[in-house]
Fold:
Amino acid sequence: MTSTGSPGTESRARRRRVLDPTERFSEILFGLIMVLTFTGSLSAAESGRQAVRTMLIGALGCNLAWGIIDAIFYLMNTVGQRGHGIVVLRRLRNPADAAKAHALIADELPPIVASVLRPEDFETMRQRLATLPDPPKRTPLYRDDFLGALAVFLLVFLSTFPVTIPFFFMHDAMQALRVSNAVAIVLLFVGGYRLAKFTGHRPWRMGLAMVVIGVLLVGLTIALGG
Structure:
């Protein structure tokens, strides 16, 4: 259930959400795909310094724009989740009957957690939720929310640089492209490997799967004109 408790509790909940490995990897993957669509557009016939410069400007500008958009979406999602939590809390304060209140709580919990709770457990939760302070009339945004949005922006935007750095220091554009692609493959593999540690999957298999998925998504994006 979305937190509507004390500021300290909400602060801890927001930090966990921002630092969730799945969300963090998703943002990095998104940023990598965006920049790879630009580096992948370089051709051997048109790989002069002007072409590289145009590509770099496009890649940086694209990830800058999408980082801002993702940060705004993050704030919108935060407001939506917090507002939903406030609505649920208000409904629990004035339930038509206990069974409906228990069902409402169950809907907000992960299914595996709800499946092991007994009616008395739901009733205890309902009573404790009813003792919480009155929720705000409007859905607030806190300092940590804006820090979270900043983190989302940085994840998307900064993921541009490891892949584009070879083009800044190598004069041979095709050689830089090969190094850039190798860096992207390593990042995809490491991201998948670390994600597997969090989700309980086999790290090497997840790492290789993320490389394949990343390559396919980049190819699909380029093929569709992205």
Q: What stands out?
A: DSSP finds ten helices and no strands in the chain.
